[in-house]
Every structure is written in C-alpha cells, then in structure tokens.
C-alpha cells in the first residue's frame, strides 16, 4: 500500500470526524474522495458512517467509477466525484456533506449568492469581499450520470464555481488537496449560516 494512499486515507478519516462533530455528515450521508494518481482515486465505500470511518471504509476506483479493490462498493454518488477529477488533472479532493443549512437553503433558493463577506477570500481566485460568489442549486436526482452531466455543463459555462448544492440533498466542493477542500466546506458552511440568519432577520 502506497505512502500516498495511507496519508490521504488518514486525512479523510480526520475530515469525517471533524465534519461529524459539526453535524455536517448525519447518519450514513456524505462521501469523500482523494486523487491517487492520473487515473485513480480513493473513495469512501457506500453506506459508511463518515464520522466513524476506519481503514476498511475506503476503496480504490478508476476515474470512471469502477472499483479496483474486489468486494467493495464505491459510494452511490461516485459519478459526482469522477466527473470532477476528469475535468481537472490538478484536482486532488472532492468532499460532499449534508448539513442542515445547506439542505434548507437548497429547498428555498435557486442559487445561493455570497456578497460582502470577508470569508469569501477562502476560495481560490477570490481576493476581496467585494466579489460575488454564486453556488448553484441543481435538482436532486437518483440518476447520478445525468446529474453529473448537468454539473459538467454548468462548470463548462461557469468555470470559477467553487461548489454546488443539490436540492434537498447537500453540498459538493473540491480542491487541490484534502486540506484545501476541507477549508472550502468550512467557508461554505459559515457563509450558508450567515445567509440563513440574514433571511431570518429580513422576514
Ligand atoms: C443516507 S444519505 C443517502 C445517500 C447519500 O446522499 C450520501 O451522500 C451517501 O451515499 P454513499 O453511497 O456515499 O454512502
Ligand atoms: Zn449525498
């Protein structure tokens, strides 16, 4: 087993514990992956509790979603990971979470827009709070290849996108490393909470 795999697996286990402590990965929801090479990734197997992951909770898969470790089934949402790695060879991690704020906002809005928040600078290419960060909301679907195609087309047209919501479901974001991607989740969750509270104040 490679040093890289061991390191990335340990990082993803720690991410799961961190997110679980904040209530962002309830029940067996959410899935995590990290790139192992040009054609391969490490991904959580389907049905794992992401706050209690151990070494058995992962498998290697190719970038078309085929399991490379026998007897293990990758996440049901593997296609939403592979589409990202195929788009960008520099991408090293994809994280998906199911927080309350992300889920509630996705039921109310067509897109979530952040404007004027300093934390927007946590995202790549954003250098000022005087920016507009748009998080699109896509309809939920059990047809993951179809959903992945919708994501792919949106990102072709909007390459600066840092994450997206699936209605009534959760959040996907990505980054060069596990640490970068964890930071994106944290920043997005902070900003979702701000938008949610602002909506309450505006009522
Ligand atoms: C209990 S949550 C339903 C499935 C889901 O949305 C999810 O994120 C987890 O699916 P997986 O197959 O990756 O465990
Ligand atoms: Zn999910």
From TrEMBL:
Cofactor remark from the record: Binds 1 zinc ion per subunit.
Cofactors demanded by this protein: Zn(2+)
Name of the gene encoding the protein in the UniProt record: mtnB
Annotated function: Catalyzes the dehydration of methylthioribulose-1-phosphate (MTRu-1-P) into 2,3-diketo-5-methylthiopentyl-1-phosphate (DK-MTP-1-P).
Name of the protein: Methylthioribulose-1-phosphate dehydratase
SUPFAM superfamilies given in the database record: AraD/HMP-PK domain-like
Residues annotated as domain Class II aldolase/adducin N-terminal: 10-196
SMART domains: Aldolase_II
Taxonomic placement: Bacteria, Pseudomonadati, Pseudomonadota, Gammaproteobacteria, Thiotrichales
């Amino acid at each position: 087993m490679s040093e890289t795999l061991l390191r990335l697996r340990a990082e993803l286990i720690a991410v799961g514990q961190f997110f679980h402590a904040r209530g962002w990965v309830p029940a067996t929801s959410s899935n995590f992956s990290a790139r192992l090479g040009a054609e391969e990734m490490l991904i959580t197997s389907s049905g794992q509790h992401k706050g209690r992951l151990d070494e058995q909770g992962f498998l290697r898969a190719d970038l078309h979603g085929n399991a490379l470790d026998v007897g293990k089934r990758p996440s049901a949402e593997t296609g939403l990971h592979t589409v990202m790695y195929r788009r960008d060879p520099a991408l090293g991690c994809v994280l998906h979470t199911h927080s309350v704020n992300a889920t509630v906002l996705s039921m109310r809005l067509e897109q979530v827009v952040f404007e004027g928040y300093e934390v927007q600078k946590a995202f790549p290419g954003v250098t000022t709070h005087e920016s507009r960060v748009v998080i699109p909301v896509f309809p939920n679907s059990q047809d993951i290849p179809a959903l992945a195609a919708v994501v792919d087309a949106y990102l072709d047209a909007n390459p600066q996108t840092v994450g997206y919501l699936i209605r009534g479901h959760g959040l996907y974001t990505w980054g060069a490393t596990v640490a970068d991607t964890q930071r994106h989740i944290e920043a997005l969750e902070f900003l979702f909470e701000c938008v949610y509270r602002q909506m309450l104040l505006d009522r």
